[in-house]
Amino acid sequence: MTGRVVVIGVGNVFRRDDGAGPAVVEALRDRVPGGTVLAVSDGEPGRMLDLWHGSDTVVVVEAVRGRPARPGRLHTLSVAEAAANSRSSASTHALGLGECFALAEALGRLPRELVVHAVEVSDVELGTGLSGPVRSALPELVDRAAATVRKAHLRRA
């Protein structure tokens, strides 16, 4: 075990609410223990696997489309839950987390612990800035991600 902890904010800041993941990463810069790797990704599975390679704990922060939609609703999911949920909640990207996790599992590249913190989106059209519901949910999303990171660092101490 390396004890390495990685937070990946998945999204695109130029697609409105899809920028929630990167916004959480930015907000975490002064809130997580030193040594935590903070990264932003477009969600492409190969790049995601490279970002978390050699990590014990990975926290993914993602924007999702819920069915039925409840913009601003938060979810905290394990790998199995995120993969199962991909049938009822869709990533805002071409390939969802379910496909990424399936690839990681097939390649033997799943970290020991992988937690997904997600927010349901309202608007992923071109533009910048989060919608009201997602902006309102952002502090709690940041708190959840920070708590997961702190717990991971305590386990390795």
UniProtKB/TrEMBL annotation:
InterPro entries: Pept_HybD-like_dom_sf, Peptidase_A31. One of its GO terms (biological process) is proteolysis. The keyword Endoplasmic reticulum does not apply. Keywords: Aspartyl protease, Hydrolase, Protease. Gene3D superfamilies: HybD-like (3.40.50.1450). GO terms for molecular function: peptidase activity. Belongs to the peptidase A31 family. This is Hydrogenase maturation protease.
